[in-house]
Amino acid sequence: MISYLLRFKRFLFSLIALFCVISLSFAFYFIGGNKILFKQQERNSFHSGFTRSSIVWPGDCDYYARSPEDKEKHPEEICADALNSLRRQLPKDCEYNLSLGEDGLIDFHRLAEYSSDSPIRFFRLSEGEFLGELVCDVSVYNHSFVYFLYDERTIPAKTKVLTFTAYNFEAVSDGVRMTGFESQHIVRFYKPETKEFIAFIKHRGMGDCGRYFRYQLSEKKRPILEEIRAKLECNGMHSYSAEEIPVEWTQYEAPLVFSLLSKILSWVRELE
């Protein structure tokens, strides 16, 4: 019996080690390719000189008529170009069906016609760097947004949609099974004063069950999962609004293997 357990532990350790080696190899392969791509992009861009401290859409991020003699690069047009290219990066399952243009991609102005508030907001991160917020889904009791980095310190400006690690929960005989996944539109809101993202997925409207994830934006502009809470039983107890922290819900730690893989993928994305 002891010999069997020892062999099993060795096998499990070897399996985890193999997984880590494959993941690292995969990461380094893409890192090498991304470094080449990054150098090519750097050669095709130049410093903009823009020092805006705020952006309000659409006034500060749109195309305007001007004379043919005006060859100067304007920040409003650079921003509009960036949003235009961003459309191809957006997740396919956001509720944009009524807001699509003739090219089959989202039309931001058409989206604004169906939104009570501005569908796009910008939060300043540093000089020339902003966090963009774009509405994705507005259901009865769950809202979600897409968040992207916008850097106008160079021309063309750079955009990148942020990806967030999250988990599904399933009650099993010996406890709770957590299954990891990544999403670009799970976050409900951003707190600029703390640079935190909050994902609160209610399983029903009264907020007595669901999932809660809190992310911190790192210095490298990468969302780091800091807190996981969940309550699977919808029993009318421990109800919370979306703006509250469900402190009475069970707090969980991220599974080691999936957490490691997510960190590797995040490192790769930093070089994209």
Features:
272 residues; alpha+beta; 4-stranded antiparallel β-sheet; 5-stranded antiparallel β-sheet; elongated; 3 domains; single chain; 4 helices
Can you describe what's shown?
The chain is an alpha+beta fold. Helix content is 28%, strand content 30%. The protein starts with a helix and ends with a helix. It has three domains: 44 residues; 116 residues, no CATH class; 108 residues, no CATH class. The protein contains four helices and 13 strands. Helix 1 runs parallel beside helix 4. The strands form four sheets. The chain has a five-stranded antiparallel β-sheet, with no helix packed on it. Strands 2-3-4-6 form a four-stranded antiparallel β-sheet, covered by helices on one side. It is elongated and about 70 Å long. This is PF06674 domain protein. It comes from Leptospira alstonii serovar Pingchang str. 80-412.
